[in-house]
Amino acid sequence: MNISELRHPKEKLYRTLCLAIGGLIWVALLLGTMFSILVILIPVAISLWLSEKFFQASIYGNAVHVNGNQYEKLNQLSAEVTSQLALEKKPEMFVMNSEGLTNALAIKFLSGKYVLLFSNLVDLLWDESEKENTLRFVIAHELAHHAAGHVNFWPNLIMKPAMIIPFLGSAYSRSCELTCDRIAAQVVQDKQSSAKALISLASGSRELVSHTNQSAFIAQEQQVPGMFGFLQEILSSHPRMTKRLIALNDQEVGSFSASGSTMAVQADQQVDPA
Question: Taking the alpha carbons of 253, 255, 257, 259 in that order, is the dihedral positive or negative?
């Protein structure tokens, strides 16, 4: 799977801008401080190492580790998607008590890679009859953050100064989410399950999702007040769910077969939610 080809065009633009602007700012800082600013990397590295150790102490003691001996089907789903995305090593996956929240996170420290699945999300999307394709979509979305390098330390360190530019960081984050939706849809190769996963996240209801009119939901985007919709969007790290579904449908045009089975083309501590 060619991750580069699946990147959303907006991510390519914002990523290039962030790397270029961030790189120039770093060069200016290095030259302006005679490279003495590099000493900050030492406490940053120590801080990240300590953060990961505290994170491990918490997650291994308070969440359930998905592996060959625990939640075999979830582990198999994760392994299959990891292979499809050509990740060298499967990130450690955990199911944690979400206390009512429905979400998932991709996290990377200096060395370890992790995916956290909130329990309510698993309960919402688990469906034996659909071969877990809705849950596969969400798992693929989180693993795509790792495969696309969205949580990698060095690129994020280079881009960090560019994030001082108003709204640029949020725009980049939103584009990364669209990229991961595209990658997840390619992994799942099932347009109905991909759409259902997004609608499930929007409604939060397992019972109602099968009764949701997808066209009517998409049409809600037309009811978003123009100016306030724009302001809400530029301040958000995630696109509106209506826009994510529209983008997914646009990507599907001419990409899925008639049966809806195939899509053609389709730091410091770094955390990316679903």
Answer: negative
